[in-house]
Amino acid sequence: MIDDKKVIFSGMQATGNLTLGNYVGALKNWITLCNEYECFFSVVDLHSITVRQDPAELRSRARKLLTLYIAAGLDPKKNCIYYQSHVSAHAELAWILDCFTYMGELNRMTQFKDKSAKHADNINAGLYTYPVLMAADILLYQADVVPVGKDQLQHLEITRDIAQRFNAVYGDVFTIPEPYLGKAGAKIMSLQDPTKKMSKSDENLNASIYLMDDKDTIIRKFKRAVTDSEGMIQYRDEQPGIKNLIDIYGACTGKTPEETVKEFDGKGYGDFKIAVGEAVAELLVPLQDRFHELEKDKAFIDSIIKDNAEKANYYATKTLRKVQKKVGFPERIR
């Protein structure tokens, strides 16, 4: 609790390019939370290096992601938008929490299994203890709630387990975070395989709409979107490609699936795909324009990075010092 407001923590990795799915599923929801909560939104670049990264590219993507947070509508004066790597307390607390986390818990983490399969040549300890660093991210700021999708609930559960275990030994040190699922929104699926979520790590560039794609690219990708041979625009599980396009159209226009089906009754897939592409392009223009404007203002972005790192460090250090004292580390001589 900060200034009588509950605290929310969330973040995204500085890898890949943000997709329409990231925007609809996360960023737009974050914006609605800003007035009600004290918000910490991190560029989680420590998490990014569990997979080998090109250093210059990682730095560039981290800055681009932080700028996109602001371009999407997050006010950096009201929200703490910062680089995870600029707050050393994340790594320090993660080590302490490692000592309160059981191997059996980490063995059950599905993300470790999935990433190990994808990166069999680099199954490192960081990949294995990733959930503990995530727990440190959340617990450092005494987060009351964490926006998560259903596929992320497992990570929040281990965070709660670690916090409760620590509190049972040392008293009420950590706030036990609750999941924030928000209103059930559309889950944006891949344009090439509508049974899978749209992903910024998809190797098929036609599968995802990236936030900085121009209109021609967006229209081209939608023209190539996988549908079916039924030829009717209906909102049903048996037509996952069309269902996904209806969800995307609704996310951009605010129209319900029923309204969309009625609007395009009797129209062909080709016309519908172009209409969806145009709706997406129109949605993204203000964000893209704001991003390009911010990108040119280096001094402003630099000031946000500096000021918000200081704010994040202030709150993170308060928690870390309390934890260090509880476990018996010597006090620092001032």
In words, what does this structure look like?
This protein has 13 helices and 5 strands. The protein has 2 domains: 7-180 and 298-327, Rossmann fold (3-Layer(aba) Sandwich), CATH 3.40.50; 205-292, Tyrosyl-Transfer RNA Synthetase. The longest helix has 30 residues, at 298-327. With 334 residues, the protein is mostly helical. Helix 3 crosses helix 12 (269-296), helix 7 packs across helix 8 (153-170) and helix 9 (215-223) runs antiparallel to helix 12 (269-296). It has helices at residues 20-33, 45-48, 55-71, 89-98, 103-107, 110-118, 125-140, 153-170, 215-223, 240-253, 257-263, 269-296, 298-327, and strands at 7-12, 38-43, 80-83, 145-147, 178-180. The protein has a 3-stranded parallel beta sheet. It has a two-stranded parallel ribbon with strand order 4-5. The mean pLDDT is 93.
Write a brief structural summary:
The chain is mainly alpha-helical. It contains 13 helices and 5 strands.
Structural class: mainly alpha
Q: What's the Cα radius of gyration?
A: 21 Å
Amount of helix: 40-55%
Estimate nothing, just give the exact number of structural domains: 2
Morphology call: globular
Query: Can you list the strand order of the major beta sheet?
Result: 1-2-3
Low-confidence stretches: none
